[in-house]
Amino acid sequence: MDLINLLAFVVVVALLVISPGPNGLLIAKTVPASGRAAGFANIWGFVAAFYVHGTLSVFGISVLLVQSAQAFFIFKILGAMYLCWIGVKSLLAAWKAQTVVVSADVKKAKAVNFKGAFAEGFFTNVLNPKVSMFYLAAFPQFLSMDASASQAYLLVSAHALINLIWFSCMVMLLSRLKGLAGSPTFSRWLKSVTGVVFIGFGAKLAYLKP
To answer: What is the pTM for the complete model shown?
Structure first.
């Protein structure tokens, strides 16, 4: 693979990763309330979704999203509904009286939190048609006509690595705020803001055109 193309791809995806969006918002919501491990679970969900989109792009399956207006519309609405659902859930949690119950099975509770955080990270990206469109429109531009699948996955891995580094730094920074989550006022404020913004992202995605 041409080194210049690889470097150009790295610059493009770095700008995409660091730009404000649902991923950063999800990390900001998860870490102060659920801790560092849950934040990293979000990140691994992001990474898994990138490989799904990369695989669909490599095999040309996701071209349907561009060629079929109906398929794009269904996929877009699913993604918008999911983002709005996260937002509504966050708003409900902000105003619902929380009763802390100490569980005897701590390991089981952590496993459930990890799986839930991973799922949120995964579905936030795998149902995002913007990510699909990036892998359909921009991604192939960095590959030569005779590029192999391994070269394509090299670019996907570069995207995943940049994502991992950036959001890991964010997790480490936000983990220091975990103590603030114990404050009812801060917790309610954080959940309210993230809930409203997620609903906003969902509404914006619903009006996205291919």
So the answer is: 0.74
For the segment 146-167, what is each residue's pLDDT rounded down to a tens digit? 667 788 889 999 999 999 999 9
CB 128 within 8 A of CB 204: no
For tokens 């409900």, the residue is: 92
**97 φ/ψ angles, rounded to the nearest 5 degrees:** -65, 125
Assess contact for 49 and 159: CB atoms under 8 A: no
For the chain, which residues make up each domain, given as ranges?
3-201
Q: How is the chain classified by DSSP, letter by letter?
A: --HHHHHHHHHHHHHHHHSSSHHHHHHHHHHHHH-HHHHHHHHHHHHHHHHHHHHHHHTTGGGHHHH-HHHHHHHHHHHHHHHHHHHHHHHHHHHSPP-----S-HHHHHHHHHHHHHHHHHHHHHT-HHHHHIIIIIGGGGS-TT--HHHHHHHHHHHHHHHHHHHHHHHHHHGGGGGGGGSHHHHHHHHHHHHHHHHHHHHHHHT---
Mind listing the pLDDT tens digit for each residue in 45-74? 999 999 998 888 877 665 555 566 666 677
Cβ(121)–Cβ(41) below 8 Å: yes
